Amino acid sequence: MTPNHSQGDQRYMLETGKISALQMGMTIYPVMMSTAMLAGPNIMAREAMNDLWISPIWASLIGFLSVYTTSQLHAKYPQKTFIEQSEEILGKLFGKLLSFFYVCFLLQINGYIVREYADFISIFLIKTPLSMISGVLVLVCAMAVMGGVEVMARSAQFFFPLFVIPLLVMIGLIFPDLEPRNIFPILGNGLIPSLKGAITPQGWFSEVFLISFLLPFLTDEKKGKRYGMITVGLVMISMIMVNLVTFFLMGDATGRILFPVMDTARYVSAADFFENLESGVMAIWVIGAFVKVSMFYYATVLGAAQWLNLTTYRPIVLPIGLLTVIFSFWGLPNLAVVGDLHLLVIPVLLVSFCCLIPVILLVISAFKKSNTAYKGARSG
């Protein structure tokens, strides 16, 4: 049996499930949108104020670039995740080194996401220890990851309407009270504020890079790039809509409220029946956090298994889950530190690992292939 066949057999031992491109999109949408929905309006309003609706447009460019880069790498190295592609492009030694940093990066980011979730839930469950909240979330996500890519994608598909519909209902209920005049003047201070407001959202959009760990398992691989682009476009539209609704309702106060969507939900009152819907927003966040943590968890586990050349990733699911909980506290002493990291450090890490490095690898790959073709032409 040739080495290539051995690698292929190992890959199928690691993951035998198959999902559709639509399921991939339904999985990635909450990954990018869950945090953006809750904290996005506040973060973008601080810099852009009434131009906060423009910031997602600038930020989405990183998302579209990430989809293009990931799809091109997949076309050049089909049936391989980014971890395997790195070894193909850089060689075994440097590829293994880069892959190790990626596994550590995914683990660290997932720990940070779990901590964000725990801090938010602790607002409502005051007496519950953060470690308990984090542990329960990771344990539930571990069950989805243990089931493989199909279970995870089907879970995301099931929860997708529950993530989107309540938000649309809430917007519909407060629609009569919105003040569209708050949007003016548009670009009153030029483009710079809206560009500054796009710094943090760039990180959320770059997370679409995770499709690299799903593209090899699509039943309709040719649709992967298109659905990736559609997903980024829908997230951009969703961010614009959420930003506008909160700003139309709260005006300049949007930048001073930590979770504007929560306050928007408290504002809802219709026929003395739909009132104080913040529990609905919390439910949306929990669903989004489950899908997001599960996706990062799966990428970490699959990447670690490929890096270690394992034939199955299931034995390392729980150990990596335990490390994720530990990383949710390591270097994150309080909510203030978590918030500060969220504004600049995390976005820089996400854009670097999820967009810039893949672009560099794509360029190296193109150079290697052109150089090989040139040598072949000369020898011929």
Short description, anyone?
The protein is mostly helical and 380 residues long. The chain has helices at 3-14, 21-48, 55-76, 82-90, 92-121, 130-147, 149-174, 192-197, 199-206, 224-250, 260-267, 278-307, 317-327, 335-343, 345-379; strands at residues 269-270, 274-275.
Element layout with pairings:
Blueprint lengths: L2 H12 L6 H28 L6 H22 L5 H9 L1 H30 L8 H18 L1 H26 L17 H6 L1 H8 L17 H27 L9 H8 L1 E2 L3 E2 L2 H30 L9 H11 L7 H9 L1 H35 L1
Antiparallel strand pairs: 1-2
Helix pairs in contact: 2-7, 2-9, 2-10, 2-12, 3-9, 3-10, 3-15, 4-5, 4-15, 5-6, 5-12, 5-13, 6-12, 6-13, 7-12, 9-15, 11-12, 12-13
The ordered string of helix (H) and strand (E) elements is HHHHHHHHHHHEEHHHH
Helix run count:
15
Strand order of the largest sheet: 1-2
Q: What profile does the largest beta sheet have?
A: 2 strands, antiparallel
Under CATH, the homologous superfamily reads Amino acid/polyamine transporter I
3D structure, described in words:
- The protein is an all-alpha fold.
- It has a single domain, classed as Amino acid/polyamine transporter I (Up-down Bundle).
- Helix content is 73%, strand content 1%.
- The protein has helices spanning 3-14, 21-48, 55-76, 82-90, 92-121, 130-147, 149-174, 192-197, 199-206, 224-250, 260-267, 278-307, 317-327, 335-343, 345-379, and strands at residues 269-270, 274-275.
- The chain has a two-stranded antiparallel ribbon with strand order 1-2.
- Strand 1 (269-270) and strand 2 (274-275) form a beta hairpin.
- Helix 2 (21-48) runs antiparallel to helix 9, helix 5 packs antiparallel against helix 12 (278-307) and helix 11 (260-267) runs antiparallel to helix 12 (278-307).
- The longest helix is centred in the C-terminal third of the chain and has 35 residues, at 345-379.
- It is globular, with a radius of gyration of 21 Å.
- It starts with a helix and ends with a helix.
